[in-house]
């Protein structure tokens, strides 16, 4: 059985979609660990409820990004993780983790990249008057929301409510992330 890791910082709806798909055999893998940089984030309880091991850390408790990423890389090595799925992990992956896991880390982002990178993609797209929104899944490199695109799905929306865009987008995210992880693992 292949081992994957999910990194998250917030609510964890993508984490739940991935973990559920693994449990139901729609992804041929097991979530070996859920890594979270926000003690108190809702995703932690969700992982515990689903019986998924968690590694929760507070970046402020470390002297550098390299220090906590070294610990994470050692954990991923120990668990023999083949693919790291960032799912609302609101932190730029540093060189330590990229050196160890580059080419094996993917991210999901709520825009049609390369448009609207960063933490406020939906708000920026709404402010811009966008009429076609979308979701991107891409390989992670050293740039914010950079790296080659693996999958994208677009949806039309003519309104101006960021919450509604978020809701419509998340439904697509959950499907597209599961499909994409499944495809990548089957190709390996
Ligand atoms: C997702 O919508 C994801 O696209 C976004 O964070 C959300 C996490 O939701 N990621 C980014 O904005 C990355 N730049 P979740 O915690 O419910 O899975």
| Order of SSEs | EHEHEHEHEHEEH
Question: Mean of the pLDDT scores?
Answer: 97
Flag low-confidence runs. none
CATH architecture assignment name: 3-Layer(aba) Sandwich
What is the alpha-carbon Rg in Å? Answer: 16 Å
CATH class: Alpha Beta
Question: What topology does this entry show?
Answer:
Blueprint: E1 2-8, H1 13-23, E2 29-36, H2 42-49, E3 54-56, H3 65-78, E4 81-86, H4 95-101, E5 105-109, H5 121-128, E6 132-139, E7 149-156, H6 162-187
Parallel strand pairs: 1-2, 1-4, 2-3, 4-5
Antiparallel strand pairs: 5-6, 6-7
The structure holds glycinamide ribonucleotide.
Structure description:
The protein is built from six helices and seven strands, in the order βαβαβαβαβαββα. It is of the alpha/beta class. It has one domain: Rossmann fold (3-Layer(aba) Sandwich), CATH 3.40.50.170. A seven-stranded mixed beta sheet has the order 3-2-1-4-5-6-7, sandwiched between helices. The model has no long low-confidence stretch (mean pLDDT 97). Glycinamide ribonucleotide binds next to helix 1, strand 5 and helix 6.
Short account of what is shown:
This protein has 188 residues and is α/β, with parallel strands linked by helices. The chain has 6 helices and 7 strands. 39% of the residues lie in helices and 24% in strands.
Key words describing this protein structure:
188 residues; alpha/beta; Rossmann fold; 7-stranded mixed beta sheet; 6 helices; 7 strands; 39% helix; binds glycinamide ribonucleotide
């Amino acid at each position: 059985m292949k081992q994957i890791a999910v990194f998250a910082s917030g609510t964890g709806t993508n984490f739940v979609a991935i973990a559920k798909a693994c449990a139901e055999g729609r992804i041929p893998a097991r979530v070996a660990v859920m890594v979270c940089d926000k003690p108190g984030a809702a995703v932690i309880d969700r992982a515990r409820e689903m019986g998924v091991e968690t590694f929760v850390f507070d970046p402020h408790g470390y002297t550098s990004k390299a220090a906590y990423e070294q610990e994470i890389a050692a954990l991923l090595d120990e668990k023999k993780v083949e693919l790291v799925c960032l799912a609302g992990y609101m932190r730029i992956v540093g060189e330590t983790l990229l050196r160890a896991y580059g080419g094996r880390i993917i991210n999901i982002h709520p825009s049609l990249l390369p448009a609207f990178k960063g933490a406020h993609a939906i708000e920026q797209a709404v402010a811009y008057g966008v009429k076609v929104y979308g979701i991107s899944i891409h390989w992670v490199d050293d740039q914010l929301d950079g790296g080659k695109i693996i999958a994208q799905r677009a949806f039309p929306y003519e309104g101006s409510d960021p919450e509604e865009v978020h809701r419509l987008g998340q439904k697509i995210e959950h499907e597209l992330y599961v499909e994409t992880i499944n495809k990548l693992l089957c190709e390996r």
